[in-house]
Amino acid sequence: MRPISTRARALTAAAAVSALAGAGAVAIATDASAAAGCRVDYAVNQWSTGFTGNVTVTNLGDPISGGWNVTWAFPGNQTITQGWSATITQSGQNVTATNPSWSASLGTNATANFGFNANYSGTNTAPSTFKLNGVACTGTVPNSPPPSSPSSPPPSSPSSSPSTSPSVPTDPGTKVDNPYANAKGYVNPEWKAKADAEPGGSRVSNNPTAVWLDRIAAIAGTDSSSSNGSMGLRDHLDAALAQGAGYIQLVIYNLPGRDCAALASNGELGPDDLPRYKSEYIDPIAAIEGDAKYKNLRIINIVEIDSLPNLVTNTSGQAGGTAMCDTMKANGGYVQGIGYALNKLGAIGNVYNYVDAAHHGWIGWDSNFGPTADIMLQAAKASGNVNNVTGFITNTANYSALQEPYIQPTVTVGGQNIRQSKWIDWNQYTDELTFAQAFRTKLVSIGFNSNIGMLIDTSRNGWGGSARPTKASTSTDINTYVNESRIDRRIHAGNWCNQAGAGLGERPKAAPASGIDAYVWVKPPGESDGSSSLIPNDEGKGFDRMCDPTYTGNARNGNSMSGALPNAPISGAWFSAQFQQLMANAYPPLS
Ligand code: BGC
Q1: What total number of domains does the chain contain?
Q2: Are 192 and 156 within one domain?
Q3: For residue 9, is pLDDT > 80?
Q4: 1 lies in some domain
Q5: Which of 216, 436, 458, 581 allows an S-S link to 506, with CB 3.0 to 4.6 Å?
Q6: Three-state SS at 528
Q7: Residue of 265, 457, 499, 531 with the most ligand 1 atoms within 8 Å of its CB, for mutation
Q8: Same domain, yes or no: 382 and 317
Q9: Residue 156 buriedness (CB in 10 A; 0-12 / 13-18 / 19+)
């Protein structure tokens, strides 16, 4: 949940004019060879001087166990600058991609996926031949019956199955376009009990909130000492059936090296724990979500908060970037982990995946917007099929206002465009609704299905109460104008932890606006974002100074005060003062 504002200004954003997206998968077929068989799908997203390449190799021959490499030669001057999920080296036009240490074997029909960024000039022609361990990938196994022969079926969809572990039971049912439409949401009884125990809490406690599967133990259920709830996944799904709920919302949140740019929600898995993420976390969740008992419940997964945007804006060399984000970018743990989760969970007929896409105050600048969309596509492709993604969520656990009627970025004051103000800081967007709709358009333009929908977390972006402006300022100074007119009352849009003055936002609601599947409460109101001082715990959670009200800030929040409430417990734990404040400042107000 680290809504980190990265101050990438439009003035320096020329690098991000990702004009196009010509993604196309081509199966490369060339000469045959004797020992093995393979198929390569090669897809690019390119702009005028660079591109992102995505390579999926399927081993059609005997199992490979001692490591693999994929080689090719670029026909032009393409130069790889960075790779992931494989070690990629280039010598002249020749490229070798070697398996990552965590993925040395490739069983029959198993698929490996990796990607890279590259520069080029002129025409970006695709390589004509790819080889797996020296054998050209023709799409068939030489000397075996052709793919149409029933005795040797090719993989039904060449890139649809990156996983080698057993598949989960699936419901063949057709997914609906918007799983929130005409359906009652599951009310988490553990959250409801805490809300009901607060004076006035029963006014909101019947709203659906998400269940966070924030560690492996949360699947089976934890003991009562855990910071947020002890019911396991089956307990929640059974309770949802008992409630007659139409949908349930779960947060998949346990990537290796989690929360690489902040500390408050560091998790239990180390940076190299991708195998554990797959086998001890995603596989068991997929097995439960795929249980036919739940087939009439729409199971909605909110996938891995903040992770992919962190790889775009918070690697070292960027303001406030971290070595852990470098590690997670280099080892592919986030992209591969999310790809795996989308693949396993998306295969289930009644399951819907929404990937986290940060918020406007983080990726609203041109320099972050396109690259974030691109990495979303990489992760979706790593799952084998972009249609494993139902949509995206913005503003998870964040405070960005839904709409800013008085500070739209086109406004000029005293002859100056307000984008130059300190608050907006050249961002292209000033509110979540406009941003989410524009990001959706961008995602569709680069290759996502045109029926994807967005979610916006409105659990604490209401900003009601007496501090809420009711009209535009009359000041002719852009900074005064913006500060007096904005709905979002934070000290800085990069602040994210237990914000003073925040209120509950829109109540959960299906299909509230064009392109938006729902307003949702993913971060349960009343649950802390992080402790305001160091509190030892056994959940891997660190102390992030952005949660300390005395902190004077860092590059990512313009060296501003943190604006955090005092006396907060660790992230996820109940924080009564925060809950009371959210109710008091709700907008729309509570009746
Ligand atoms: C925490 C999780 C918690 C979630 C919802 C996150 O910040 O890391 O442990 O479940 O918030 O409150």
Answers
A1: 2
A2: no
A3: no
A4: no
A5: 458
A6: coil
A7: 265
A8: yes
A9: exposed
